């Protein structure tokens, strides 16, 4: 979080007024490496920013550590007041979306911790870490960050077959980082901004960082953004996304930086809006487009480095880095 960006020094501090070039390469030419998986002990991006009376995102640090092996235990622990580190062991079957109180770390043990059938809901919650969990068959959203929630870190998880969104960040939520997750053939991967009519609640909010995620054969919303700015989409690996990669709509401001798009017909929508939503603003720089279409850009975007520092990996390295590091079983628990 404290390191500086190698790839973008010298860009104006407040806006990205210049559209920098993108590399276009044939599919299949990404450098094949076997890097060691990364497992940060604290978030980078917006979840690390000191704001709203919260000093970054620390989760349940300072509280006791418990282990949930049954549904009853898990639901009791996430509804407990005060800091708590919740280790999830085995498969936890839940229904609907279950609320999570502030100051929690929810982390899977090993590589086989599963939340099945339902999802996690954040309603005016804050300072929560969700890591190393496989979410399967959620009957609605797998993770819903909403209603003014802030300082949420969603890291090193896998999302499989939710009925609706894998991760939705809506209704005034902000200071969220989504990192190193595997979106395994999900459809509606990630929505930022509840609806076209929700401008009063979402404008000036929805400050979100997405980095080193693997959007693997997933369909759309990587993310789809309304109103939020800045939304920082960097160093993600997009592979075979049938509908589109990123959509900036309803005057959102999205920076798409250092990503690798592999066989994505429509990497970015912005100037023309998307579906029934009006146009947004989108700046792209330092991306690689392999066997992919053109990234549609529009306008200028607030520079994320006015909020935090970050290190940008070369886009050509992103496929190997993300394949080695994204998903469950990559972090020590």
From TrEMBL:
InterPro entries: PbH1, Pec_lyase, Pectin_lyas_fold, Pectin_lyase_fold/virulence, PEL. Keywords: Carbohydrate metabolism, Lyase, Polysaccharide degradation, Secreted, Signal. GO terms for cellular component: extracellular region. The keyword Lyase applies. The keyword Membrane does not apply. Belongs to the polysaccharide lyase 1 family. This is Pectate lyase.
């Amino acid at each position: 979080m404290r390191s500086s960006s190698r790839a973008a020094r010298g860009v104006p501090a407040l806006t990205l007024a210049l559209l920098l070039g993108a590399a276009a390469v044939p599919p299949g030419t990404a450098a094949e490496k076997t890097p060691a998986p990364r497992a940060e002990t604290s978030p980078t991006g917006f979840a690390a920013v000191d704001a709203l009376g919260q000093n970054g995102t620390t989760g349940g640090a300072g509280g006791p550590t418990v282990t949930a092996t049954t549904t009853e235990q898990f639901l009791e622990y996430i509804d407990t007041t005060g800091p708590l580190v919740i280790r999830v062991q085995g498969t936890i079957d839940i229904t609907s979306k279950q609320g999570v109180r502030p100051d929690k770390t929810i982390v899977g043990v090993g590589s086989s911790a599963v939340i099945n059938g339902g999802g996690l809901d954040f309603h005016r919650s804050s300072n929560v870490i969700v890591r190393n969990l496989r979410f399967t068959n959620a009957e609605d959203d797998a993770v819903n960050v909403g209603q003014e929630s802030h300082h949420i870190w969603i890291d090193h998880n896998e999302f499989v077959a939710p009925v609706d969104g894998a991760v939705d960040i809506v209704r005034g939520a902000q200071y969220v980082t989504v990192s190193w997750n595997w979106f395994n053939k999900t459809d509606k991967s990630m929505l930022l901004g509840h609806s076209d009519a929700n401008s009063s609640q979402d404008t000036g909010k929805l400050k979100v960082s997405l980095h080193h995620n693997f959007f693997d054969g997933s369909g759309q919303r990587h993310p789809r953004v309304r109103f939020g700015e800045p939304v920082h989409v960097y160093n993600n690996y997009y592979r075979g996304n049938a509908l589109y990669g990123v959509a900036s709509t309803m005057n959102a401001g999205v920076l798409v930086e250092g990503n690798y798009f592999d066989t994505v017909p429509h990497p970015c929508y912005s100037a023309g809006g998307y579906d029934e939503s009006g146009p947004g603003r989108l700046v792209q720089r330092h991306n690689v487009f392999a066997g992919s279409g053109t990234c549609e850009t529009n306008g200028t975007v607030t520079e994320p480095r006015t909020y935090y520092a970050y290190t940008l990996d070369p886009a050509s390295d992103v496929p190997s880095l993300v394949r080695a590091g994204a998903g469950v079983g990559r972090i020590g628990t």
